[in-house]
Amino acid sequence: MSTTRPVALVTGASSGIGKASALALSEAGFTVVGSTRDTSRATPLDGVTMVDLDVASDASVAAAVQQGVERFGRIDVLVNNAGIGLTGAAEENSIAQAQGVFDINVFGVMRMTNAVLPHMRAQRSGRIINLSSIFGLIPAPYLAAYAASKHAVEGYSESLDHEVREYGVRVLLIEPGGTNTGFEANSPRPDSPLPVYESQRRIADQVLATAVRDGDAPATVASVIVAAATDSKPKSRYTTGPMAGRISILRRIAPSRIFYTQIRKYNRLAN
């Protein structure tokens, strides 16, 4: 079966930003393939074909992309949304924990990209939209491994974009700020907690919980993803929500001393 509508593949589409994005893309006229690790446990979404996909598995990625191409004939937009967090001081996170974050947040993006690029190059068009974070631009104390993964996504995406433009493919970044999802509750805790960090870790958890609770709705991010998928002249990066926009500007123009003072103040760290 093929379709005359453009086809979008969204990873991590069972909840949060992924779910909102899959529904928004469907409403915008896309045929949408949404993925989750276990479709038997996912709530059906109107206008979205759900497939099983584990972005940490080469075989699963290849099978899901092939399934989408065989069913609909093409993939025009890939939204790399699947991701996980990790809280705690950097010293409290084991290398195994950090590797788990990178396997999904970074290598998952690379696996998905490598799987769809041959199809996009062959059709001489396509957009790969990677979910970064405002923490891909700024420090994130007590979220160091997560921030490192998003910095990696930024560098990978910008570099790849220049490699594939000549084939009609663009690689774009979405940089949300705090978003009202299950991020904080679903982020693993450190597996090697140390008493020296306990007090500040508790404060960091409170700061993160507040940012998530008071953050933008997933639909706000989804609307920006639709814009990135449809803009005739797409931007390389899109911030979502007013807070993320202000932080992005300050990161570029504020002197380092002033900027880092504000980072420490926001995170309630001693100067």
Automatic annotation (TrEMBL):
<dbReference type="InterPro" id="IPR002347">
    <property type="entry name" value="SDR_fam"/>
</dbReference>
<dbReference type="InterPro" id="IPR051911">
    <property type="entry name" value="SDR_oxidoreductase"/>
</dbReference>
<keyword id="KW-0560">Oxidoreductase</keyword>
<protein>
    <submittedName>
        <fullName>Oxidoreductase</fullName>
    </submittedName>
</protein>
<comment type="similarity">
    <text>Belongs to the short-chain dehydrogenases/reductases (SDR) family.</text>
</comment>
<dbReference type="Pfam" id="PF00106">
    <property type="entry name" value="adh_short"/>
</dbReference>
<dbReference type="InterPro" id="IPR036291">
    <property type="entry name" value="NAD(P)-bd_dom_sf"/>
</dbReference>
